[in-house]
Every structure is written in structure tokens, then in C-alpha cells.
């Protein structure tokens, strides 16, 4: 810098002012962890909403909301089970999704508690199921008997039992086709009142034929009638669904165990991630104060 004194130009050096550099303060909250929890629970939330919608739609189609007495056994009603599963899934997904996005420690704590309770329930159910296998088998038998008795009264139960017998296990009845005597339409005494299905079984008991496009809905007629002229074993599945279920579990034991451990691991991971995110949020709040 130059200054002029009495007509003479003189150079003057001024002290330099140091430039202060501001360092951007880093956040304690992990963005990766935050959006990982958010993204996973968005899918979980939408899944729960979809299941809940299907259950509510099924009940509305049967006009259950206007007449709850139509439900013979609410605990075994497929639509009610879907509503319960959808509600629980929706709540867990909502608390995890919004809690992570808004960095709300209360919602994250609720999310972790829900997962912990669910994890504890699943582990307890697994242990008790292994210990009380005979009791579980008897309860499953009672439930299947209820499905058979109300086969024609509830379309959801009818579709469920048809899927079990035809698509999943290829079986018929609880211990065999004779169990369909419990249903008023398939009981042999129903022939006296003009039921065409008397002494028969539902079409879902029939064996699939190769290259069959449209299934014969009358294939199970008269198969339990005394003096039936055809070989019943070639027409219907004579194995009971209880025995078929046990065999299916034995064949898929490794796959079932693997899926169970994966689900438990993901739940434990979700609890740990939620707690870590809460700790990050508390650390960030401590820096502000």
C-alpha cells in the first residue's frame, strides 16, 4: 500500500489480518442408519396396509360389520386373522418409518418395544409348540373340524380348506375322507333330504388329472357311497390332512428353521438399529445444549 506525505509517495506495509476458517460441524445422527430404517419400514407399512385392506374388504363382502353374529368362530375366521396381522404390521411399520424420518425418540422406542414383544412371543410360541406338540395337534384337529362343519357357510373358510386339500397338501379330511360326514351337505344321511353331495367329498379332494384345464366340480360325488363301482384311490386323495401336514413339516424342516432364524435375526437387527439411532439423536441433542 502506498501513501503520499508532503508530495512524496511512500510504501507502507500494513499488518495482515488472518482469515478465520469455519469448520462445518458434523451431525451425530447417521444418515445411512436413519434412511435404512425408514426405507425398510415404508415397505413394512405398505405391506400391513395391504393385508389390512384385504381383511376389511373380505368382511365387508360378507356384510360382517352389520352382523357380527355371522362369524361362527372369530379366531378361525381367515378375514379376521388378516385384519389382526395387517393391523400389527401397519403399526410397527408406522412407528419405525415416522420415528426414523422425524428422528422421534418416542416413536423409535415404541418401534423397538413392539419388535421385542413380537420376538418374545414368537420364541415363546416356538418353545411351547415343541413341548406341547400333542396339544397343538389336538387344537389343529378341532380347528379343521370346525372348517369342515361350516364349509358351505363361510366362503373364506371354504376357499382356505380347498386350497389346503387341493394345492398345498393334496389331502382329504382330517384323518381321511370319512371326516366329511361332519358336514350336513356331505353326510350320507343328507341323501334323504335330496342333497346331491351326500356321501361325497368336495372337489378339492380329487386328484389332479394330467393336462386337465377345467376341473370337474362333481368328481367327488358318491365316492363314499356303499357299493361305489370305481376305485376310489384313483379318484380322490385318501390321505388325511393331519398326516400330510406332519410329512410336509418333516420334508421342509431345514427350510422352516432357516426362515425362522432369518426372521428372528431381522427383528433383532431392527431393535439394535432403532436403539443405535436413538443414541445418535440423544448425542446430537446433547451437543446443541
Please sum up the structure shown.
The protein has helices spanning 31-61, 78-101, 105-131, 133-149, 155-168, 241-251, 253-288, and strands spanning 2-5, 8-11. The chain is mainly alpha-helical and 289 residues long.
Quaternary state of this entry equals single chain
Rounded mean pLDDT score: 86
Spatial extent as radius of gyration: 33 Å
Q: How many beta-strand runs?
A: 2
Helical content band: 55-70%
How many helical elements? 7
Helix vs. strand class: mainly alpha
Name the helix and strand elements from N-terminus to C-terminus, one letter apiece.
Answer: EEHHHHHHH
Shape: elongated
Distance between the termini: 46 Å
Please give a structural write-up.
There is one protein chain. The protein contains 7 helices and 2 strands; from the N terminus they run ββααααααα. The chain is 55% helix and 3% strand. The two termini are 46 Å apart. α1 packs antiparallel against α2 and α2 packs antiparallel against α3. A hairpin with a 2-residue loop joins β1 and β2. It has a two-stranded antiparallel sheet. With 289 residues, it is mostly helical. The mean pLDDT is 86.
